[in-house]
User: Fold this.
Amino acid sequence: MATEFLASNISLSLAAGLAVAMAAGALGVFMVLKNMSLVSDALSHVALPGIALGILLGINPFFGAFTFLFAAVFFILAIEKRTSLPIDAIVGVLFTASLAAGILLTPEPELLEALFGDLTSITPLGAALTILLSLGVVLAAILISRPLMFTIVAPDLGHVAKLRTKSSYLLFLIMLALVVALGVKFVGTILMGTLTIIPAAAAKNVAKTFYQFMAASILFAALSVVLGMVAVYYAGILAGPAVILAGVAIFLSTLVFKRS
Amino acid sequence: MNQNPILRVEDLSVTIEREKILENISFTVMPGDVVALIGPNGAGKTVLLRSLLGLMPYRGGVHWSPDAIIGYVPQRYNIGKSVPLTVREFFLLHERKFIFAGLGADKKIMESLALVNMPAGVLGERLGNLSGGELQRVLIAWALYDKPNILLFDEPTAGVDVSGEETIYNLLHSLQDRFGITIILVSHELNVVFRYATQVLCLNKTLVCSGEPETVLTPEKLASLYGEPTHYHHMHNIKEVASGLNKAG
Assistant:
């Protein structure tokens, strides 16, 4: 039954999944460069209580997820200012706590979907919006890559060059919240953060230039979705884990080509 | 001399977490000056430079001439070996279109690299793979990319070996000769200051002394700036330089 439904909507679901993965791949470049892999991973867990509240209040869970992620982004900004605190530990503890709270809050029938995603449940309108927003994020990520790279590799020099590095970083985090909120529909709250990291980590293994890094990260993210969906279609397994495992397979194969 | 100053600093004070780092610093820099900031560790040299650039909060006035184009070479610059960013892309950060910049940008990069005697072959290298000396040259070339008329230079020799150090100063000197660039540099090398600077600012929270090297770099003033133990070491350097200059002359 599920397979039939998937087959009829395969192009729409696939296109939306591809678009959101590409957006995650584009943002992942900066997450990996900033050594924020863990932050991104834990960040996606914050979506769960948001989804739960959305379901309980009878509104679209996307808005609940986005609201919680948006708040989490400002939380990250606030603790980044106080560099004396161990960010990893705080983010790890608080964001995982929100996952635990979310699991308790989410009504049981919806829990599996919230945790691992279900791309068969997406509506045509939802898919169209996801594609539009995701491609917008890819474009915006490329457009603000200059100030973002300044904040990462040479913040002082960026300041001297009179760039608005702070606002571009804020925009980046908001886009991250948006993409994670869109992506939880496909791969779930547990695995969505990983989707921003794995393609970028794989791309970093093979890229010599920033241009290659960005291109390869977007490409690998798209490839993860295609390979994952092939596995869903033929083996009837859950899409979220399938996509993530496809990404892991790509990552492992790039290790062969890793530049020293 | 009816020239306007390129930089005027009035009563600049910096306080970090209630500790006074700099107090009531005032000085003027004219176009073509080579200003050396000297002083013991923790005297606030880097803080002063960063305040001039607006990189940290301060009280007082920092007035740049409207036509000042500032180039900045930081004291420390670290980039991970694994960061996929080539020297070319690092330069392209200057361009609005960044990695999509046209061929004109490449020509400008080559020109900047030529100024610091770096081969064009370095363009495709990852920035993180450069040696300390190469990285410093690339940073200078990077600062020169937009043709600045004032260069702020924080301890040019940090992390560079002695022969490399010599050439960095020769390089600065030739830039000054060729383009008349105004230079403000932080330096621990009193012999270099003695040789190249037109104006010396001795810093130890306050401006202890200022003026031409010959008048400022006296044993008494250096002793009050650095304290006794280092005094002998530095004077040894000065004497060496002085005798070297005599021989050369």
Remarks:
- Residues 3 and 233 of chain A are 7 Å apart (CA to CA).
